[in-house]
Amino acid sequence: MGDSGSEGNWTYGDYLQLPALLELQGENRGVSPDEMHFIIVHQTFELWFKQVIRELTEVRDILAQDHVPEDDIPRAVDHLGRTTEIFRLMANQWTVLETLTPQGFLAFRDGLGTASGFESYQMREFEILLGLANEDRLYGMDPISTFRKLAKNSERDAAILARLEDVASKPSLSESLMRWVSRTPIMGSLAGNDGDEDAVAEYIETHLNSHEKIGKQASERMSGYGASSSEEAAERFAASHQGAIDFLKPDGNVSRARAGLLFIESYRELPLLTWPRTLIDAIVELEESMVKWRHSHARMVERIMGRRIGTGGTSGVDYLDATSQYRIFKDLWAVRTILVKPDFRPELKNAEFYGYSSEN
Ligand code: HEM
User: Distance between CA 2 and CA 19 in Å, rounded?
Assistant: First the structure.
């Protein structure tokens, strides 16, 4: 920044680079008050996206370490907490846009051409950073392909592509998290130690037995009541039990990462698991806030332009509603479906390992 910055001798305007920032809202093109508001709302979102990328990169880097020092976890939780608050703020910011009337929007919409939030490369960056897989996107779309086409236009576009390719080449936050979770001590057994596989398999089998028993009891209780016949209810519970088996033993082998998640969620009260479960809660909260943000975008769009086709060429509201079904941290959501009530959990082994002494 300017010379005035030496030794903290800034003016407010210099420190924030306000003259440069305040020249970017379209007044040179003579935009209407409605359009200037439209631009400012977009720009503030993009500024927050920039911060979101910064925060989430920190979290990814913390979790991607081969050994994550325990005192790094509170820092990761703080970065996630800030990101969640940013999404909550952005979800509320749509109400400012909703002051734009359908006619007010149509008055300048043609001028946008094919420009659309669809081309927000910062949005794509944080999605990739978090780990939204292409096969989980609508039509299996590869978001980088849009930027590969644009990259030919200018050096700036080429730099955007390079940035996206770089983040895509690194392990995502979701992958790093699952690798970290796979090292969770389960029933006091450490990953990689002798006998660990047996200890984890026994834990999983005991849990699955409880799960099946609870399902059978519930299905018997339901027979004669509710929306389905007793056969249908029994089938549904059997299918849900099979779902639990498939989740914990994809391809027939126990997934240690999912077993670790199940263990953390099941024994949340253990002192040693305080930070792991706090971290997982922070990620679930973040994803929930993102889903709500996507949902409220769709409601705002429906109100302002109904079901028109988007300037980016998608089906518009239907497309946006479908994106609110995306889940990046699928295992964190799925594990909730297969938990059992506290009294039915497998008995905890090696309680002292988790910070419980025989006295308490
Ligand atoms: C009048 C206001 C707005 C309307 C009518 C609108 C409409 C749309 C539509 C229809 C799409 C789907 C893609 C397409 O076909 O164009 C879209 C995508 C998107 N919009 Fe908006 N939008 C508005 C404001 C905003 C604002 C203020 C932001 C903030 C940056 C934003 C960010 C995005 C993003 C990131 C996407 C891509 C979503 C995805 O692919 O997952 N939009 N928008």
Answer: 12
